[in-house]
Amino acid sequence: MPAPRRVASVIRLRPEHAETYRMLHRAVPQPVLDTLSRAHVTNYSIFLREDTLFAYYEYTGEDYDADMAAIADDPQTRHWWTLTDPCQQPLDSARSGERWVTGEELFHLD
Fold this sequence. Notes:
By secondary structure, this protein is of the alpha+beta class. Helix content is 34%, strand content 27%. The protein has 4 helices and 5 strands; from the N terminus they run βααββααββ. Strands 1, 2, 3, 4 and 5 form a 5-stranded antiparallel sheet that branches. It is globular and about 45 Å long. It starts with a strand and ends in an 8-residue tail after the last strand. 6% of the residues are buried. The mean pLDDT is 96.
């Protein structure tokens, strides 16, 4: 079995929405979690430092683009995003339409 693809990304948290964002993530809807699992997303964590959200997950599937498209096509996930997106502010370096920006992996220790 190949090693999982490790994905790290960042976005800003709007300070005025910090408590809302925390509250939302205390009870992520099960259908959203199920969609992530079906798309082979595992070991998913989101961390907060000051106004920066850092997300990390591992992808264990074989067609990353198709699985990410399936997540984006899921109606319950899209609804979830209507709740979480207003809490977030993309980094200045994000391309048009890009929200979370991925980071370059520089080091890994198993």
